[in-house]
Amino acid sequence: MTRCLVWLAIILLPVVILGGMWVARRDPTKPNWALPTQMATSPAYKAQSSNPVFVNQATMQTPVEGTLPRGAHAFHYAQTDADRKQAGKELANPFQPTPETLQRGQRVFQTFCLVCHGESGRGDGPIIPKFPNPPNFLSAQSRQLSDGEMFHTITLGRKKMASYAAQVPWDDRWRVILYIRSLQNQKGKP
Ligand code: HEC
After folding, report:
1. Residue ranges making up the domain that contains 100
2. How confident is the model at residue 50 (pLDDT cuts 50, 70, 90)?
3. Nearest CA to 173 among 88, 120, 104?
4. Is residue 180 part of a domain?
5. Looking at the domain assignment, is residue 36 inside a domain?
6. Residue-averaged pLDDT of the chain
7. Residues enclosing ligand 1, CB less than 6 A?
């Protein structure tokens, strides 16, 4: 009797396994079978999809004029020398040259600015002279610039220097200015 059962199992086992595999087989080119949950197929409109609710049919709406996203800063200056002067008068550096601030400023400087402005700020970065010389930060003229004027230059760019607003966030721009100040305060020939 037990023998009979063993033989039956030996014959049935492949049938069960292969049959199970056949039932569970799936076409890898098609998405797997899934319960339609609201997590997977959200009823909300997708950011890029069209939208019958709004007049302009777009789900992603442009911000209302005069509003700022959270954490954003307004910068009401044009890319002119007059506005640079104005920014110099009105904007103050919110940071103090603490070791942490300077360390962050150095990191930003070495990542984005060193190529042109040079390790010590003398305008002798590795890209020079393929790229026209930037001013020497240790010169009297650069020392006279206020933090606000520097901030204006970094934010909007000036002449050959492009804007670094996209690469360097607002707070980091103030920190990198303090780092430039620390370069200016180092002893040595300009
Ligand atoms: C592609 C080269 C290049 C890079 C990179 C660059 N700069 Fe400049 N930068 C210049 C040039 C050229 C000028 C001179 C612009 C002008 O004629 O007013 C300048 C001017 C400046 C000035 C004004 C100095 C003065 O005496 O007028 C500041 C401040 C400054 N850069 C900061 C930075 C900071 C901070 C970074 C990095 C976030 C940076 N720059 C990256 C080329 C560069």
Report:
1. 81-185
2. very high
3. 104
4. yes
5. no
6. 92
7. 112-113, 115-117, 131-132, 134-135, 141-142, 145, 150, 153-154, 158-161, 164, 168, 176
